[in-house]
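Lecture 7 notes: from sequence to structure.

We start with a single chain of 663 residues. Read the sequence below before looking at the structure.
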Amino acid sequence: MATSSDDMKTMNFRRYEEGDFEHRPWQEEIWQAGWTHKCPTYVHRTPPCQGSCPSGHDIRGWLDIVRGIEKPSGEKSWQEYAFERMTLSNPFPAIMGRVCPAPCQDGCNRNQVEDFVGINSVEHFIGNWALENGMKFTAGADTGKKVAIVGGGPGGLAAAYQLRKMGHGVTLFDEHSELGGMMRYGIPGYRTPRNVLDGEIQRIVDMGVEVKTGTRVGREVTMEQIESDYDAVVWAIGAQAGRALPIDGADADNCITGVAFLEAFNDGRLQHVTGKVIVIGGGDTSIDVASVARRLGHITVENENERPEYVVLGQTAHDVASTAKREGADVLLMSRQPVDKMNAAQHEIEDALREGVEIKGALTPVSVVKDASGRAIALKVADLDYSTGKAVVVEGSERDIECDLVVAAIGQTGDFTGIEAMGNERGLIDSDKNFQVAGKPGHFVCGDAVRPHLLTTAIGQASIACESVDHFLKNQAVGKRPKVDVHHFNLLGKLKEWNLAPEEFKRLDPEEIKKAEGFAKEIDLGQRGTSDAKFAVHNYEDRSFNDIIPSDELFLGHFTYTPRHIRDNIEVSAEEVLGHFEERLVALTEEDVVAEAKRCMSCGMCFECDNCVVYCPQDAVQKTPRGESTTGRYVFTDYSKCIGCHICADVCPTGYIQMGMGD
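Now the structure, written as tokens:
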């Protein structure tokens, strides 16, 4: 409703008179001797760890819980509260705390002080605690809608988890005998212990997920049946087919892919290798293949069907008794990139070298050398020179390396047998930013079928895809995704948790406004324009959906040198590696986990250090009364005392205080 001309005459907060279009120079406008027109505003922004996490973890949030800054409102332990926050985005903390390459740690602002925060180690501890203490998930109220999920890997399981939380019915189809996808069939058990994996999967199934294993959509069940029986479909089929070497001779039977090799091993069929093994790659999958081959060991072939390629191709399986004859395997891992530029995690490279894997970089495969029967007997390779900035084959460097098995770990693609209509020319599925399948309403996708990447990427995509599914099932338009698309801390939600939610805004009746002598009186009655009103969160701005806070906006001088608490890693030597399938990573103790969480700088959110209170020369910044305080509302500013000196913002370690224009 427009403001009446009478009311306009009584408005008393205008900074300029009618016809006054000139303002003073900006320096004079803002600064006046010992005071300014600026005042502290509390600005919430996304920390770079979270911005770097493909699953969108509220990392700062659960680290603040572990360290004791953010507390639950009830009687929950900090471990349970941290688990609940952690699994808003990722239902596999015990697995991801072990195997995620942790791009969050690369992005951590603490790197500017001495070293990143050990985010994975804290997640590892909480994940273990949750399994040991029987933590469960709760499904939402039943909506009556049914969703089919095709694929039981990290993406499909994460989608089942998110959809059940929303209350939608879920049936999960997977062609394997067990769920887990790449977590089970693509990563060896000494990195993802099977009891841990089974526990985290069962927690999702127990939410009421119907599971149909040994069932391939496109073979046992048609796409038409799926579309007829379900209200929506989520495709999480992964990229289960490895890419073959694009060189002459790579069609030999004993040239196989890393994906097929690891699946045969994790399925229990492959129990030893024969002869020398050459692994081609440079990423984590190639390291896993080489490390598994070293553990399996080598035997001299007595029967043709003992050769590993026949096992991998599913034609036979190894007899356990034959492994008694095994010896250490001769394994070479070669990469087109120099060793120091390989994509694999540095600690994984170091472990492989210690375990006896030979690693050579700047080497390219040229062709596969076959014998008269068509078997590969050698791999022709050549050196690469990077001195020009590009890979150039060194003339005259070609040579043959004898081998009995060639394993290519150079990429993956999808298998669309029976569902050809879903695939594109790259062997993947096309989708938009909301993970809706192009041209197929009601179909959604997540995980490696979109783009082969990390497990945590599949989990993050599943969360977004499920929001799109929810909108579709409710006949709602799918809105634009935020620029910083993660699971954000919600201050209003936190206030509600502590029964501190703002009061309901009640607008005065127009007739009452007139009786109250105009618009200016409405202001006096606390309807707007005052920090005393209780219907809003004052002087708080949420920029987390658009802004990631960099290290140069923190007060780094607050943080003293504190060494990282590093998990122990059981080092396996080349002599010990044969048959060594025990877990290598040792979880931190509770004491070390809490100490490590305290190294977090809580970028973009108050962590209650008291600097602003201590250093304010006017006593304008004060602690929020105990009964009204919670995370993000630890301090407030008495603006009648504030002179805008900027000191509170200068000494704020986390960048949570920003100076904004005031009256």
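Residues 469 and 498 are 31 Å apart (CA to CA). Keep this in mind for problem set 3.
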